[in-house]
């Protein structure tokens, strides 16, 4: 997709705002969300309020604005990031009519924060033009994604009701939910690594909540599976409101509203290189989907699965991955426990105690000329990414997924 060409005068002004956006961007985006939600509370249904209160979403948007200013002469370089965000938007049912609302309040917040600038009118005009160009790319990209999701066999647009056919505890904090369409119609396929959005309403006096959960099994099943970690709430925040509701209130036979599978963190199945999957905590969910899929579609492809967890009681799907490794010469399995129990130390695949580090990955990965996929908490992502960079692994073979708004690692 080619973006519309901005005027040179516009690009010059946008470029000049990069330093102030680096300094004031989060203040602008925090004010933007506050004002928009005050006037349009219906949009609370779309946005994760926990990420709002923790500042993750304003921080992510501020980073996007800064990236646009820095890359204003080559906005096409942002297309991969735009596509990744567009997947999330499509999964959350973001619509074209939402973009003028966002633009209005974003420019309003920008004007308020930068009001002392002598060129404020020119700045706002330049950003209005730039926002229009970027918004059109989002709208067009998401329109294609909506059409693709709806037109595939078993696909749909918006929400579709699913029945929980089974609920299975995987660890002390992680539970899997097996889901089938309530209308008993066909089930849309997906790419291993993708996610769905779940809509719940724990409190009918408040807006509905939506959360995105990775599909944790292969696409060749007649069900979807999500494996949800029960998050502990923090005082004054809504952490865990959805995961706690799912764990405590949803049982087999209940129904949930889902959007169609989405996401760009997907397995490259046409590669001949070995596959290395590195999971931190509940970050194993999309990676188990990749492991299961590869074992069916390309059983001879070497796969190394590295699972890091605090301890065995928090380690989900260990029996499953262990049995796959025991039953296939193509699958290697390595475990790292931060604080293992006496019993954990007897795990046959325990390779290291403590945190993931270069020594662990060197011992676990027999062939560094591989495709790497990793998922987990941000500090874990930073550590693994740094190790792979030090190894000289090219960016094209480094793939990772954030749970929540994208951040810098």
Automatic annotation (TrEMBL):
It catalyses: 2 nitric oxide + NADH + 2 O2 = 2 nitrate + NAD(+) + H(+); 2 nitric oxide + NADPH + 2 O2 = 2 nitrate + NADP(+) + H(+). Transmembrane segments: none annotated. CDD domains: flavohem_like_fad_nad_binding (cd06184), Yhb1-globin-like (cd14777). FAD binds at residues 195, 211-214, 402-405. Coiled coil: none annotated. The record marks 33 as: Involved in heme-bound ligand stabilization and O-O bond activation. One of its GO terms (biological process) is nitric oxide catabolic process. HAMAP family: Hmp. Consists of two distinct domains; an N-terminal heme-containing oxygen-binding domain and a C-terminal reductase domain with binding sites for FAD and NAD(P)H. This is Flavohemoprotein. It comes from Alteribacter lacisalsi.
């Amino acid at each position: 997709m080619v973006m519309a060409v901005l005027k040179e005068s516009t690009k010059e002004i946008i470029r000049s705002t990069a330093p102030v956006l680096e300094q004031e961007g989060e203040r602008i985006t925090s004010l933007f969300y506050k004002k928009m939600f005050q006037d349009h509370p219906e949009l609370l249904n779309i946005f994760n309020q926990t990420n709002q209160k923790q500042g993750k979403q304003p921080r992510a948007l501020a980073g996007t604005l800064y990236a646009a200013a820095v890359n204003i002469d080559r906005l096409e370089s942002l297309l991969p990031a735009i596509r990744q965000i567009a997947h999330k938007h499509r999964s959350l049912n973001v619509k074209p009519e939402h973009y003028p609302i966002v633009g209005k309040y974003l420019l309003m917040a920008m004007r308020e924060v930068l009001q002392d600038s002598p060129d404020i009118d020119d700045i706002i005009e330049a950003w209005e033009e730039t926002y229009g160009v970027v918004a059109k790319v989002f709208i067009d990209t998401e329109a294609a994604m909506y059409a693709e999701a709806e037109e595939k066999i078993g696909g749909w647009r918006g929400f579709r009701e699913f029945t929980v056919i089974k609920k299975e505890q995987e660890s002390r904090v992680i539970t899997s939910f097996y889901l089938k369409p309530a209308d008993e119609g066909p089930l849309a396929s997906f790419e291993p690594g993708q996610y769905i959005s779940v809509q719940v309403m724990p409190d009918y006096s408040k807006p509905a909540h939506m959360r995105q959960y990775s599909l944790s099994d292969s696409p060749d099943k007649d069900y979807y599976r999500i494996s949800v970690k029960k998050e502990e709430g923090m005082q004054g925040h809504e952490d865990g409101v959805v995961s706690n509701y799912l764990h405590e209130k949803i049982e087999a036979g209940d129904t949930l509203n889902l959007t169609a599978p989405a996401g760009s963190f997907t397995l490259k199945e046409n590669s001949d290189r070995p596959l290395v999957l590195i999971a931190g905590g509940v970050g194993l969910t999309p990676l188990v989907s990749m492991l299961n899929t590869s074992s069916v579609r390309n059983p001879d492809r070497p796969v190394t699965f590295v699972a890091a967890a605090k301890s065995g009681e928090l380690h989900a799907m260990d029996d499953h991955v262990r049995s796959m490794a025991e039953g296939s010469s193509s699958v290697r399995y390595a475990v790292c426990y931060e604080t293992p129990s006496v019993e954990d130390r007897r795990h046959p695949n325990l390779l290291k105690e403590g945190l993931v580090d270069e020594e662990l990955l060197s011992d676990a990965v027999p062939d560094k000329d591989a495709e790497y996929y990793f998922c987990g908490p941000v500090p874990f992502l930073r550590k693994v990414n740094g190790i792979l960079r030090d190894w000289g692994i090219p960016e094209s073979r480094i793939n990772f997924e954030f749970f929540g708004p994208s951040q810098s690692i």
